[in-house]
Amino acid sequence: MIIFFATLMTLILASIFTFQSKKISLVNQLNLFLLSSMLLINSMTILSLNMHLIEYTHQKEGFFAFILYRDGVFPLLFLIFLNAYKQIKKNKVKTLLVLGMLASFFVIEFTAIRAKLLVYIHWHLIFSVLLYLSFFVILVYVLKFLEHKESEEEL
């Protein structure tokens, strides 16, 4: 059942992303998707295998759902919120957007904990929210760098 919900969430987010208006070029979106995937995979590996702060489920279905969340849902959420962030001009609205993004990550990770996909050993949900905020800031600055490089190439 958990695989169904993870797949459904991935498909819904992919549909939202597909129909969302975008100001970010396709190449930059692919770069950001891959970078966010790498950040998430590496951070989860470090937190689980190296530091033993988080433990994954040992059930096949649960682990597959976790992989869908880590490699599909979270990177798509980052892209959806980055596209929206790029279109907004006012700082107050951008702040609300980032808070909404953090709340959505909080809800998804809380659901993963309740479904026993993740078990926190010496970790807290607030740490995860701060980690996602730092990833978002990294992605915003990488996007600015990529757009700067694109504008230099056009000259």
Q: What does this 3D model show about the protein?
A:
With 155 residues, the protein is mainly α. 81% of the residues lie in helices and 4% in strands. The protein has 5 helices and 2 strands, in the order ααβααβα. Strands 1-2 form a two-stranded antiparallel sheet. Helix 2 (26-50) crosses helix 3. The model has no long low-confidence stretch (mean pLDDT 90).
Short recap of the structure:
By secondary structure, this protein is mainly alpha-helical. It has helices at residues 2-19, 26-50, 60-87, 91-114, 125-154; strands spanning 54-56, 118-120.
Ranges where pLDDT stays below 50 over 5 or more residues in a row are none
Radius of gyration: 16 Å
Strand runs, count: 2
Class by SSE composition = mainly alpha
Task: Fill in the keyword field for this structure.
155 residues; mainly alpha; two-stranded antiparallel sheet; 5 helices; 2 strands; 4% strand
Question: How are the SSEs placed, and which strands pair?
Answer:
Blueprint: H1 2-19, H2 26-50, E1 54-56, H3 60-87, H4 91-114, E2 118-120, H5 125-154
Antiparallel strand pairs: 1-2
Helix pairs in contact: 1-3, 2-3, 2-5, 3-4, 4-5
